[in-house]
Design goal:
Radius of gyration: 21 Å
Shape: globular
CATH class: Alpha Beta
Strand content: 5-15%
Largest sheet: 8 strands, parallel, barrel
Distance between the termini: 10 Å
Number of domains: 1
Low-confidence stretches: none
CATH topology: TIM Barrel
Number of strands: 15
Number of helices: 14
CATH architecture: Alpha-Beta Barrel
Helix content: 25-40%
Length: 492
């Protein structure tokens, strides 16, 4: 195998509401995920609410299929519920220890997100919260100590509750201005110290109150909110290029590979439609215009998009510099398939994770080639990993050979795409490099990290960090710039 590029970035990825904690500290305001309970595959997470008539209720907060928030309801906390984002795994107090552990693996990049309400508690303050800015500057100071650069996600599926409740989140154009105010402060105070930025996380998958601040989850609300996010991203990219010379801006997408279930023409046509619906978001942001097929999507989904004069020009002026994405699985679609942008039907040829996600390393290589061929822009793999139950042995070790196997197989395919197929890829940040709270279920037992965190699903535990077997394995991968991946590889 040809060697990897010398400037390739190796690291890990997190999200503030799953990792940071520090609820109510340092002037932080309320965020939309703060009212989201824990859950499980059998019992979905939900938002706790006070209803218009004074009674109490809840709304399912599923990332892909959330419930609407009833008219007049307001989020509130229940004494008998656990809210994982409040503590998460306490990076807020443990960032020095955590960054040192990452550096011990050889990371040269760390992806993290900004808690919007830590900078602007309601989103509408005239001046930022200095304690919040200081925290992120301290994090970057620590990264620089170990020659690790930040990859910052400006908005990772959350916003100040005040913007959600007062304006219905991203359904309002007013939120664009609030977002740009956040961006300006970040670019002024952090800009020269960060080369790579992500305007939004998994923008093709977000919907509803937690991620978009919208009460309704219908298609009209969803696509109108996304249009405003498109504009915000383009304007932020323009601002960033002006304020930070040499900066690079991307947005992040959830990209499962999609295969047609058969070569039956009806299945092939459905596959094309589903892939278009998934890639529609990148098409707009990377190319700078709505594709011709957008009209078909809107018609089938009952959407009448509202644009203002100049919107198309804003999109055209500032397309993305690179395309970043998460990759965890693949799926199939047939003429009869239901499809939710990234998910379809199971593939009978693939094994599955304990949480039912198909394992398809070759799909990563396929996605990389597909996306690079389509846009001819550099890629950045910013999430990939295996959620599994890790067993603490009697001697305190964690033997996660299954995670090593998963990552080895995926990283080999990534290297093939780069070194054989000619795909330009900036880097790889493994999801949940330190165990964190699962987005989909709110669990801790669904662990991704190279580093074990002593905490259970209800937040009980010492929070002690402990290296897993995969820690030293990944350290060697990074030290050899991928060469160690092939030490036991069969001849091709």
């Amino acid at each position: 195998m040809k060697p990897m590029p010398n400037d390739f970035l190796w690291g890990g990825a997190t999200a503030s509401f799953q990792f940071e904690g520090g609820f109510g500290e340092g002037g932080r305001g309320l965020s939309t995920h703060d009212f989201e309970t824990d859950g499980s595959p059998e019992h979905p997470r939900h938002h706790t609410l006070k209803l218009a008539d004074g009674s109490y209720g809840e709304a399912k907060s599923s990332f892909f299929n959330p419930d609407p928030i009833p008219e007049g309801a307001v989020p509130c906390f229940y004494d008998d519920c656990y809210y994982p984002s409040h503590k998460a795994v306490d990076f807020y107090h443990r960032y020095k220890e955590d960054i040192a552990l990452m550096a011990g693996m050889g990371f040269n990049v760390f992806r993290f997100s900004i808690t919007w309400s830590r900078i602007f508690p309601t989103g509408e303050e005239e001046t930022p919260n200095e304690e919040g800015i200081r925290f992120y500057l301290d994090v970057i100071d620590e990264l620089e100590k170990y020659h690790m650069e930040p990859l910052i996600t400006i908005c990772h599926d959350e916003m100040p509750v005040a913007l959600a409740d007062k304006y219905d989140g991203w359904s309002s154009r007013h939120v664009i201005d609030c977002y740009l105010k956040l961006c300006r402060v970040l670019f002024e105070r952090i800009g020269s110290r960060c080369r790579y930025w992500l305007t939004f996380n998994e923008i093709n998958a977000v919907r509803g109150y937690a991620s978009c601040g919208t009460r309704n989850v219908d298609n009209q609300t969803h696509y109108q909110a996304v249009h405003h996010m498109f504009l915000a991203s383009a304007l932020a990219t323009k601002m960033g290029h002006e304020m930070i010379p040499g900066s690079q801006f991307g947005a992040m997408y959830a990209l499962s590979e999609i295969y047609p279930a058969t070569c039956k023409p009806e299945d092939m046509m459905r596959h094309m439609q589903c892939r278009r619906e998934s890639l529609f978001f990148i098409d707009v942001m990377a190319r700078g215009y709505y594709p011709s097929y957008a009209g078909d999507i809107f018609e089938r989904r009952g959407v009448s998009l509202v644009k203002e004069p100049g919107d198309d020009e804003i999109l055209a002026a500032s397309p993305l510099d690179y395309v970043s994405f998460s990759y965890y699985r693949s799926c199939t679609v047939s003429a009869d398939s239901k499809f939710n942008v990234i998910g379809g039907d199971p593939n009978p040829y693939l094994p599955i994770t304990p949480w039912g996600w198909p394992i398809d390393p070759i799909g990563l290589r396929y996605v990389m080639n597909e996306i690079y061929d389509r846009y001819q822009k550099p890629l950045f793999i910013v999430e990939n990993g295996l959620g599994a139950v890790d067993q603490l042995e009697e001697d305190g070790s964690i033997i996660d050979d299954y995670r090593i196997e998963y990552l080895r197989d995926h990283l080999r395919e990534m290297q093939k795409a780069i070194c054989q197929d000619g795909v330009k890829c900036l880097g790889y940040t493994m999801w949940g490099c330190i165990d964190l709270v699962s987005l989909s279920t709110g669990e801790m037992r669904k662990r991704y990290g190279f580093i074990y965190v002593d905490m259970d699903d209800k937040g009980n535990g010492t929070l002690e960090r402990r290296k897993k077997k995969s820690y030293d394995w990944m350290k060697e991968v990074i030290a050899t710039n991928g060469a160690s991946l092939w030490e036991d590889a069969p001849a091709e």
